[in-house]
Task: structure prediction
Amino acid sequence: MDVPFLDRVMGQEEGVGKVDEFVGQLWRGWKQIRDEGTAQPLHLGLFRSDYLLHAPSKDVPTSLRQVEFNTISSSFGPLSERTATLHNYLRASTGYYDSSPYLKAENFPENRTTAGLAEGLAVAHAAYGVPDARILFVVQAGERNVFDQRWLEYQVLESHGIHVIRQTLDELAKSATLDIKSNVLRISSTTFKSYEIAVIYFRAGYTPSDFPTSAQYETRFLLERSRAIKCPSIPLQLAGGKKVQEVLTKPGVLEHFLADEGRWEGQTFSKDDLAELRASWMGMWGLDDDDAETSDSGAEAKETSGVRKAREQASSLVLKPQREGGGNNVYKSSIPPFLDHLPPRERQAWIAMELIVPPEGLGNYLIRAGSGSEGGVKADVVSELGIFGWALFGDPSVEVKEKEIGWLVRTKGKDSDEGGVAAGFSVLDSILLVDD
Amino acid sequence: MDVPFLDRVMGQEEGVGKVDEFVGQLWRGWKQIRDEGTAQPLHLGLFRSDYLLHAPSKDVPTSLRQVEFNTISSSFGPLSERTATLHNYLRASTGYYDSSPYLKAENFPENRTTAGLAEGLAVAHAAYGVPDARILFVVQAGERNVFDQRWLEYQVLESHGIHVIRQTLDELAKSATLDIKSNVLRISSTTFKSYEIAVIYFRAGYTPSDFPTSAQYETRFLLERSRAIKCPSIPLQLAGGKKVQEVLTKPGVLEHFLADEGRWEGQTFSKDDLAELRASWMGMWGLDDDDAETSDSGAEAKETSGVRKAREQASSLVLKPQREGGGNNVYKSSIPPFLDHLPPRERQAWIAMELIVPPEGLGNYLIRAGSGSEGGVKADVVSELGIFGWALFGDPSVEVKEKEIGWLVRTKGKDSDEGGVAAGFSVLDSILLVDD
Result:
C-alpha cells in the first residue's frame, strides 16, 4: 500500500479529501488509526474490473476498455453465476431453437465466481489464524440485493466451514467491541454468544448515505482499528477512487508502481506489458490539471487547462465525480453548462474521461418480469463485462496471494442521447465466446 | 419376469385381478400385448423399499421390518435430498446449539438420490440406443408434488444431456403415436416437433382415479405396446402388489426365486441370506388362505382359516387391500366388523399383516409452515425409512444392471389409537447415524 501516493491523490491535505467530505472523513479516520499504529497489515480485496467494447470507427480494431475498477462491495458475482447457469440450462433444454450456430455448449464459459469469492474470504480467514473466528458481512439496512450476498455466505459455510454474521453499521454500534490490548474484534448480543471476527467484508460503507451521522463513521473506524482483515480497508477503498484511476494514466505513474526495479527486485513488468495495460484505458485527465503550473494563489479562480480541454472535447467526454453508485456522471452537451457552475475548488474531485464508443447495431429483447405484454422491449444494447478477482496483500513478510475468479455481464439499453451506458433498463447477462 | 407367477397371483383368471377391477384391467391389457408379442424385453424399475423399526418388547433386539416395496412412482427422492441438505446446513450453521453430541458432521450420511435416480433413467436411455430420443414423464394433471419431479428432470438434462417431456395421459391421447412396424413411440403436437421416446417414467397410472374412462387405459396400453422402456412396465407395476408381498412369504416361494440352482447357474442365495431377508418381514397371510383346501364350490361362502386367524389376532394386525396411496388399510379393532361385511370373493384382494411395533417414547416437534403459534406440535413420532434403488432387467441376453442409490425418511405423528403409521401429520426428515 503506497501511503504517500494515496495521501497525495485522495487525502484531505492535498487530494480529493480536500473537497469531497466523504473521502475526507474516511481519510481522516484512516490517518488517525495509522498514526496510532495499524493492528493488521493485510488487506483483502474482492475486486471487479469493468470493461466495455470500444469501436469508435471501422478503421481501428474493436478493443476492450476499462470503465472502472471496484475495490469495495463488488456485487453480482453469485447472481452472475446463476444467470450463466440459467442461460446454459436454456441452451441444454431448448437449443435456443437453433436460432444461432454460436449457441452451442463449448461457447458457454464456466462461471464459478461464487466459489472464487468464497475462497478469497477463506484465504484471508486462514491468514488471520483463528479457526473458530467468524466473518462479518457489514450490510445495508433493507438491502434488496441480499440474495447475491446470501449465496456467498452459504458457499463460505459449505466449502470452508466458516460462519458468517450479517450486521448493519447501526447494529454493530451496539454489538461490536474491541479489545484494547489485542485489537481483537468481537461481536456480541443477547441472542449471540460473543464471536471473534477474522475478516470484515463490506457490502455497505461505500456511499455517504451509509453514514447519516458521525456514529456510523465511529463504527467504521472501530472496525478499521481492529485486528480483523478488512475487505476492503479504508486505504484500499480509497484506492478505488476515480481520481486514482485517472492519476494512474499520468506519465510515469504506472512505471512507478509496476516497473521500479528497486521496489520489485527485478520482477517488474516490461514496457510492452505497460503499453498493453495502457491500451485498455481511455484518455483521462483531472479538471484541476493545469499546464500553467502557477503557484499563484489566485489561480483557482482561473479556468485550468483541464477545464478548457473538457469544454473543447465535451461531445466525446464524460465527467465523473468521486462518487460510487452511478447516476452522478455528466455527459457531453451537459458538460459546458455544468463547468460554468462548478466551484473551482471542487475541480479536484472530478475527472474527465473520453467516452467509450460501444459497437453499433447490437439489438436484443430486454424482458422485465411482471410487466405484462409490455414487458419485452427490443432495444439497441450495450454489454459491460466485469472480471472478478481477489488479492490478499500488505504484509511485506508474506507473499501476495491473488486469483482471477470469474465474470459478470450486464446488458443495458443504449440511450442514444448519452451515447454511453445510461442508467435504467439493465439486466444480468452471460458471455458467449465466439471465434473471430 | 416370472409371467406364470404374476398371472397366478395378480391375474384376472386366478389372482387379484379376479376381484380388483383396476388390477384386472391392467392385467388384461398386458395379457393382450404379450399375446401380440412384446416389443421391448427390458423393464426399468426405480424402486423404494420402506421400513419401520420394530421393537415389540425389551426382550428382543430392535430390527428393521419392511412395510412395502414400491415399483411405481416412488416419490420424494429429490425432496429427501433437499431435506438432507437443509439438515446438514442447519448443523453447519447452528451446530443445533449443542443440543446433542450425536449431531456432528460424520453422523449425517450423504444423500445423492437425485443423481442415482437420474442415472437409472440414463442407463435405460442408453440401452434403448437412440441418443436423440427423449424420456417421457407421464404425470397427473395438477400434480402438487411437481418439484420432486422437476429436480429429477433437471438432473437428467444436466448430467446426461437427455431431454424430458412431461405429459398427462389425456395429453398423450392426442400427442402419442406408435409406428405400426417398429413400435417406436413418438410424441408430437403443434408446439413440439415430433420426438422419439426411449424411456417412459410413470408418475401417474398407479391409482384407479388416474383412469376415469377407458380412454386412459387405452393410452396406457399404447405406451405399454411401444418399444420404449417402461418404468415400470405393467407386469413390474403388478409385481409391486401387496398380494405379491404376501405370497413371497409363503414357504418355498423365496427359494423358487432366489435359490433355484437351475435358474441362476449356481449363483444363488444361501439359506442364511434367505433367513436374513425373511427376518425383515412381518408375518403375513391372505384372507383367502384356507387350511381346509376344499375344492367344494361352496367353500367361498364359509369362513377361511385366513379370515379366522385375522379375527383372532386382530389387535396386532393391519389388513391391506390391493390399493396404492394409503388410507385404505383396516387396523386392529376395526378388523372384526370389517370382516363381517367383506364379500367372500373379495378376500383374495386383501392381506393380513402383523403390525410393526415402533419404539416407544420417541418425541419430536413437528412444525407446519403458516400455522402461526399453533404450527409447532410436540408429538410421539415414528420414522419410516425408504431405500431407493434402480434395476434394468428382463432381456436374457443382457446382464441385469442395478444399483442402490439413496434414502428417504418420513416422520409422522404416532396415532396411539391405531398403533401403526396413521395418516396425517407427516414431514420429510433425515437419517442421523449413531454408533450403538
Chain A touches chain B at residues 89, 92-93, 154, 157-158, 161, 163 (CB under 8 Å). The longest helix of chain A spans residues 77-94. The domain at 3-282+356-429 of chain A is CATH 3.40.50.1760 (Rossmann fold). The two ends of chain A are 40 Å apart (CA to CA).
